[in-house]
Structure formats: structure tokens, C-alpha cells
Amino acid sequence: GAEGSTLMSYFSKNQIQALKPKITFSTLRDLQCPVLQSNDLQGKAEESCSTEELFEWLGAVLNQVSLDNKSSSFLSTYCCPEPSTVVEKAFLCTITGFIIPEKIIQLLEQLCCYFGEPKLAHWLTLTVHGFADSPVSWRESEHGFHKGGENLYNFVIFRNLDYWLHMAVGAHDDCPP
């Protein structure tokens, strides 16, 4: 009856809102960035940073942790790995919602436009983070929440279209082959 149709309209309206991704943009000015070489995953002293150093730095940037290593900071004394360079302007875009793999491929393709004139980026990165309490992970395993619920992968794409792929999951989860 009337009660059923009211419920249906409530759920259809709210589900549509829930599935629409939320997008936020911000510009980071004078950002200290690690120097990277696409063919050097381990990094070289005074030449480039390693993939692990970059991954840690990305975590700090995405969580808006200060990178200036102030001893007065109670939150973090983290500083950008060396060698580093200051980037005048970096763009950070966050999309929150349920995003299908095809859309992620489209995003990657659009991001690669930043390698062309006039932007000329040296490298860019795309992080895809699953919900911490997601019931599924890669392969056949359930996702083990346990402590942090880690469940993400990260692309670093270089101007020559070489790329690095980081994958992070909890200790009890399977990683893809």
C-alpha cells in the first residue's frame, strides 16, 4: 500500500545520493617532493628516492601532515626524503564513493594529460583506497580488518609512461599475484 511506496521512494532517493561520488580539489603550494627516477626503484644516494620513501611521503601529504620536521610538533617530526625538490603548485583531487574499475582506467588516462604542454608534470600518482572494513579483498580471501584495515593500491606514472605499482593490504589478506 501507501507505506510500501513511501519506503521505496525513500530508499531510491537516498541510494542515488549515496552512489554519487563526492569530489574535492585542493592546491598545495611550494610542496617539497621527493626526486624520482622511473628506472630506479631502490633509489640512489643524492640522486633519487626509493619507492618506499615515496609511499611514506604520499601518506603524509594525503593526511596533511607537516613535512618540516619541527621539534615542537606533537603530531609528527616527519620530513620529506632526500633528494627533494620544491614544486610551486601541486593539485590534489579526492573522489569518495563507489568507483568501478573502468572509471579508474579513465581517470588514469585523463591524468596522463598532465604530461603534455603546458603542464609538463614529471610524474603523477593515483591512489585507490578500499574501505577499511570492506568484506572483500583481492583473490579468494575475506578482508581481515584486525588493526588498520589496509586495503589500497597506488600508481606512480612517469612522463615516459613507465609506472610503479604499490599494493598494501593487512597481514591476514591475500595480495594479487
UniProtKB/TrEMBL annotation:
GO BP annotation list: endonucleolytic cleavage in ITS1 to separate SSU-rRNA from 5.8S rRNA and LSU-rRNA from tricistronic rRNA transcript (SSU-rRNA, 5.8S rRNA, LSU-rRNA); tRNA 5'-leader removal
Superkingdom to which the source organism belongs: Eukaryota
Coiled-coil residues: none
Pfam families: Ribonuc_P_40
GO cellular component: multimeric ribonuclease P complex; ribonuclease MRP complex
InterPro entries named in the record: RNase_P_Rpp40
GO MF annotations, alphabetized: ribonuclease MRP activity; ribonuclease P activity
Protein name: RPP40 protein
Originating organism: Pheucticus melanocephalus
